[in-house]
Design goal:
9-stranded mixed beta sheet, 9 strands, 17% strand, 29% helix, 251 residues
């Protein structure tokens, strides 16, 4: 019997498309989610933060310049300004004019198409707890009555604590880019159901420790076949990838 046989049921697909469709479309846009779905992917990862007036929207960076035609710190602008930005032209002419979506936009699309979502809480520095609370509160309202809620993750413990306090019923995962002392205890203290690591950090011992604690082991960002094969052999539970055109999400 494998260690996962004794774990609580896990409702999510193993394969998760990073920021919608990886690098094939402008990240964190509805165009990316549609393209990822067209490749057969059933679960998506995205990044969520707060506008200055409290709207939850999708963006990875603290600043706007890499993935939009805007400048400055995104969280310092009201949604009325953010909504006017071009979030597609940086990627390719094909996507020029694509807008930044709100989390509500993405949620309604996922629910209508019976797709799953991993929301990474990506707060503007200094707004960790408030962003966690806002994302979780909104997610709880948008997915109310749905069979499978979104998985909320963050590198920021304070953001996860805010999410826990606002909507304790939503599943949470601790993101890690290194295994610091007490990492598993920290995930348990936050009431997490998963640990999401840089894929290179996982060993059989660590996967077994996570499973032994009743949690799931997920990995980011897995773009090579050899890395995916290693993680499958270790018995991990989720693989976040940019390569929506390479991997079969049914595998």
């Amino acid at each position: 019997m494998s260690t996962t046989d004794t774990l609580p049921a896990w409702p999510y697909p193993r394969w998760i498309a990073h920021r919608g469709a990886g690098r094939l479309a402008p990240e964190n846009t509805l165009a990316a989610f549609r393209l990822g779905a067209a490749h057969g992917w059933r679960m998506f990862e995205c990044d969520a933060k707060l506008s200055a007036d409290g709207v939850v929207f999708l963006l990875h960076d603290a600043t706007l310049s890499r993935t939009t035609n805007g400048h400055g710190t995104a969280g310092e602008l009201p949604w009325s300004d953010l909504a006017q930005l071009d979030a597609g032209a940086w990627h390719s002419r094909q996507y020029a004019g694509e807008s930044i979506p709100t989390l509500e936009n993405v949620a309604r699309w996922c629910i209508a198409n019976h797709l799953h979502l991993n929301i990474e809480i990506k707060p503007t520095p200094g707004t960790e707890e408030a962003t966690g609370r806002a994302v979780a509160s909104l997610a709880a309202r948008l997915w109310h009555g749905q069979a499978v809620p979104p998985l909320l993750t963050s590198f920021q413990p304070r953001a996860l604590a805010g999410a826990r306090d606002a909507a304790p019923q939503l599943p949470r995962g601790l993101l890690l880019d290194k295994l610091h002392d007490g990492w598993l205890d920290a995930a348990q203290q936050l009431g997490c159901v998963a640990v999401v690591c840089n894929h290179a950090l996982w060993s059989r011992e660590q996967v077994e420790a996570v499973h032994g604690a009743g949690l799931r082991a997920l990995s980011y960002t897995v773009n090579d076949e050899w890395a995916a094969e290693r993680l499958l052999a270790l018995g991990t539970d989720g693989i976040i990838s940019d390569r929506v055109e390479l991997f079969s999400p049914a595998g």
